Every structure is written in C-alpha cells, then in structure tokens.
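Page 42, continued from yesterday. The earlier attempt failed because a stray header line got pasted into the input along with the sequence. Redoing it now with the clean sequence only.
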Amino acid sequence: MVKKRKFFNAIKTIGAISFIAFFTLNGLVLVPRTAEAALPAGFATETIAAGLSYPTAMAFTPDARIFVAEKAGAVRIIKNGALLPTPLVQLTDISTYADRGLIGIAVDPNFATNHYIYLSYTFENTPGANLTAPKTGRIVRLTVSGDTANEATKVVLVGSIGGNATTPSCEQYPMGSDCIASDSSSHSAGGLHFGADGKLYATIGDGANFDAVDPRALRAQNLDSLNGKLLRINTDGTAPTDNPYYNGNPNANRSKVYAYGFRNAFRFAFRPGTNAIYVGDVGWDTYEEVNKVTAGGNYGWPCREGNNATTYGCTATGYINPFYSYIHDATTGGCITVGVFPTSGVYPASYSNKLFFGDFAQNWMKLMEVNASDTFVGVSDLMLSSDNPNGPVDFAIGPDGYVYFISIY
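This time it went through. Structure tokens are written below.
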C-alpha cells in the first residue's frame, strides 16, 4: 500500500522550464535528445531556463515574461529568454518544511494596468521555532513595479487568521474562521488560475495527514472550512454573489466555495471554449483522479477515492465520481498534475481537444481526449517515464501557443 504526498520530497534542487514543440507544422528546427525519442512524431522539447531551485508554478505576463514560483518563496523572472539573477520578490513569512511552501501563482487579467499578481503559500506562524508544527495557508495579492514587487504591497485575500505560537492551528479557532489549515506536512496551499469570468479560482488541500486516517480530513466535507475546496473569489478576496453556496455574507467561507470534497487538488485547468474546469486530485491508497467540476459539486473525499469508499467509513452526500481515474504505480504511488488544453495553430487541430497532464511520482505525461461536449474519449501517452520529463509539476500555455511545463528536477 503506497500513500503519496505531493512531490516535494525530491532529492534534487535544480529545476527547469521547457516547452513542447510540434516542429513539422511550424518549421522549428529542434533536435530531440535521445531520451525524448518516444515522443509522438513531430514533437520535441526544448529547455528555456534551468538552474531554478524547486520550481513549483508559473504564470505569463502580457509582455511575455514568465514569473516562476520557487518552493522557498522566491518568484523568479524569465525575461527575453534569460533567467534574471534577482527575484521579483522573496517571501519572508513562508513555511517550507516538507511539502509546504509557495505552490501557486497567478497574474491578474488586467495586469497591464493594475500590476497585480497572486500567490498561494504556507504561512510561517512561529518563525524560528516549531518547524514541523501545525501552520496555516494564505492567498495574497502583491503589486509589481518593473521587475520587482515589494512585500509591503501584500494584501491577504484568504487566510487572514495565521495563528501564532500559542494557537498555531486552525483547529484552535471557531469553525468558519478565515483560516486555511496546514496541520500536517502536506496538503496545504494549491493552484491559482483566473477563469474567463475574471474570477480567481484556488484549490486548497485538506491540511490533514497524508499517510493515515486523520479525522481532520473531514474538513473537506464541511462547507464552513476552507480546506479540501475549490474556491472562487473576487480580486479583493470576497465571494461573488453567484457562487453556489453564497449565503449573503461575501466574507463567509461557504460563500467562497465553488466545489468541495478534494484531498489535494493542487493543479487544475480551464478548457477554452467550454470553460469546463478539470481538477487533478492527488490520491491516497490507490487512485489518482481527474474531476470535471460543476458548481456546487461534491467530489467525495475523504469518504471516496476513485469510484470506491475509503476506510474513513464516512458518507459523502451526493458525491460525484471522477471523470477519469488511474491506479497507483506499485512502487512510486502517484501524484497527478493537471494540465492545459492548447488552442493555437502550433499543434494539429486534434490537440485542441486534448488535456496535457502529468504525474510527478510516476514521471510521465499523457494526453486526455474529450469531445466538444466535454465527454471523456480516451488517454494516450506523450512522454513515458523512460523519456524522463524530470518531474512535471505545472503546465501553462505561452503567448506563442506552446505548452510549457516545469520539471522540478
């Protein structure tokens, strides 16, 4: 039985960003390395920046800079094809123990005028002490000026209750408090993306232990807890009034919930055109999941994993089974990383219907095909573990239309 965390127990600290090119269509002359020989005909990868330290997430700006989040709290800049030596910002209030750290980054759709970026990370509520103790999470907004962002511009949008040495855990505050639990070494902060509706979507883990039955995982089924959720918020942190559980209070936790019942849904994607949301939920004993999310949906954790009941012995009301799931590898477990849908003409038209996604632990990339009505068609290989994509942990579409991905190794 293999229970996997996320991915940050990696033994190497050098990361890279690459893009996947289809060179028979656009005339690029890219020679794939021997390890890439199993890529589909016409595909190659090219590394555009290396030397990053545990890169976790990325986002493009309108002027084609790439902001790269590193686990230890730095946001690095790739500009004009070069990794700048000075970070955009280095967070000073971040916990980096085990899987904790800076996990999500997003650029505001109106960045050209408001210069906002958004970060999701584990907050250090007892600096210099209690490294392994319970912590909390935060989603914050910062203002960028040129190639820098001052921490003094930070605005906490979600997670204003950070805890302290006396009360470090969200469990020590009333249910419904603006507190993101990170009680264990994993399942804390998650991904950030803007939807076509201009709202900020954020995934948050259950904050519970990853390797044993932990009653705190039941927070994922409680609408008044922020954990185990996909949130949908305005850029000031309040809840849109059309959210499925909006209760009249724009600051209430349940008002911000778009979907719930997730274990560790740290990566997700919007499908252009249909705006369907595909969430990858990292599994526990047996299965990794892709969930096609509907507003208000309950995706079962911790009562369900894959299409089956768990040993938690609880009942999830009106749960929705995964859109797609696959079984863990016998030795490495699993850690799903969703992914992007390409839309531009740099790939054959058939790839507009395919979700690029990966698995960090099993170290591969695949393509999930869906039809025009977002019905599952099938899954095919893109890069096998023998091709060694070096731990894919995030994907993005660049302004050139290519699929970019982060290799944490």
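Notes: Residues 202 and 259 are 11 Å apart (CA to CA).
Reminder to self: strip header lines before submitting.
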